[in-house]
Amino acid sequence: MGRGQTMGKRKKQKSHLPLRLNILFFIIFLLFSGLILQLGVVQILFGMEAQEELDRTERVTSATPVPRGKIYDRNGELVVDNEAEFAITYTPKKHVQPEDNLEIAEKLVEYIDMDTDSVTERNKKDYWIIKNKEKAYDRLTDEEKELNDTEQYYVMLENITEDELNSFEDEELEAMAIKRELDQAYELTPHFIQYENMTKEEYAIIAENLHELPGINVTTNWEREFLHGSTFANYIGRITTQKQGIPQTDEQFFLARNYSRNDRVGRSGLEKEYEAYLKGNKEVREHITDSSGTVVDSKVIREGQRGKDLILSVDMELQKRLDQIVQEEVKEAVDEHPRENRWFRHAVAVLMNPKTGEVLSISGQEYDPSEDGEDQFSDVSHRALYDTYLPGSTIKGATVLAGLDSGVIRPGEVIVDRPIKIKNSPRKGSWMPLGPVNDIEAIKRSSNVYMFFIAMRMGGENNYQEGKGITYNGEAYTEMRNYFQQFGLGAKTGIDFPYEEKMPANPPEGPGDAGEFQDMAIGQYENYTAMQLVQYISTIANDGYRMKPTLVKQIHDSSNRDQLGPVYKVNEPTVLNKIEMDDSYLERVQRGMRQVFQESGGTGYNYFNDADYDPAGKTGTAEAYYWDNENQVLHTDVMNYNLVGYAPYDDPEVAFAVIAPYMGTSDHPVHHNIGRRALDTYFDLKESRLNGEEESSDSEEENDEENDDEE
Length: 711
What we know:
7-stranded mixed β-sheet; 6-stranded antiparallel β-sheet; disordered C terminus
């Protein structure tokens, strides 16, 4: 074969390669053209629908509650803790239907025993319709079938018979109860199913079968645990249940602060007052849901943080002992004089640091004697803020200061204490004619007449004549009340608590009764709370500085350890006002109050003269009345026995107020006994702590019994 033939064959073979490549490229071109055409068809024909489908995918956040902050007393003793409990939660997907919840409920019945007491007739009817949709629909008349869905449903409910409602098995009733709980959950928000005392075994079984229970999870819930029982529980307050959730009256307030409707919140007391601190920061999750509302992805975007801890101003050991003292004294007064004291059932006492306003203890105990010997006591300490009482002579310090500052009496001015008579008013006097007394002696010996003259002069009468008529205008009342309110009498105390009793009614604008104005000067006209009285005496003890009462000293950040975290906030002592008068006037009243307890002739001398902590104070007896609701009778033969005081006189660290209302006899001086024992307990407890050997309440009771034997 020649060279030319060989080359010719090579050229012929080489010419086939571009043809194959062209065919391949052409095929690829056709494929790409088809793909582009298909994309065009999808875009043109189905683009809008596809976009809507994509738009249905949402990012939604949910928040899971965390344990509330703990509460400690002023000495760091734990008062309120969180007790962990096994729990079941349900987090429904978006657009969940009743049938979905029923399906889950019927599966849960296999693992838990649910109380069926909460199942209502409506729950039964709803269940029956879900199970018998076609049957329920077939019962509708042709006209009823023309109604809208809601109206049809109500007709279906009415068509269910009593026999059908009574035909359910126990397991079905349990499923209804569970579904009732599931229905209360909000989409993508964990809801605790109200199932108490869940065992470890039940917890484990449900955990193993979560794949069959969409939205169900096992977790830990927390209940408030009061480590001191009912002691101070009235002031700690309560939180709502998950079923109650946020109060409807405050719904917008809480929802604006990222609460869920089924969140548990403080509903009373300090739990309510400090809700913003105790609630903590929820764990926040972001959920991505598809068009059916099913969660396709979930992640934590903020870790949860337990609520902040509160440090109370209250001393729990002192609180327990004060409760015991009040119980014992009330019981003894009623048992020894059952007929005379038949309307007397409770007493109230408050202890406070006059320099800082820190409330050290609040007690209110009501005694209910029983025939079988089982004495019953109720904690009514809320009466210290909620109930008002006639204070009697305890407020005479404010009256004397009003007289001195207004200039109607001079320091040391002597007035003869004798019965006085104003026209159209009964004769008025002191508990006995006291003769000549000055301002200090008027406090020491509790002169009513001295206070009457202050009132008359403030009302414009400077020339008293027996039997002469006197008329006061509203300005006199206003002036006296303004002085009283500087001490907190008839004013809001400012305590960090959701509620305290309102101020008294407005004074008369026109001429008033002279006798009533004189009664006001001796504490027989306006009622005050025990908290107002202790603020009043604290203001005198604190050289005229009125302090805001506080129940919480500090707020601490939460800690993962069994100890307090860093200080977050301190409730610093707050001065509400300074008495606007010469300090020497306050000194005179303080001297008078010291003589009340420490000098012969003082109305509290017999009960405090041997105290080594240098006390001062003022007694008070008010003519009161008691409405017998059972017999619809007003009893006017009762008295309020009151006492206020503080110690030590030259450097006060504790002030107190005691109110024993509606007593029929003073043969058992409840107010004096409670006041003396309260101060003794405070200083004994202080000394024992300084010595490092705190006594128990039992040993305190034994010491009291020994002292009684010696007396």
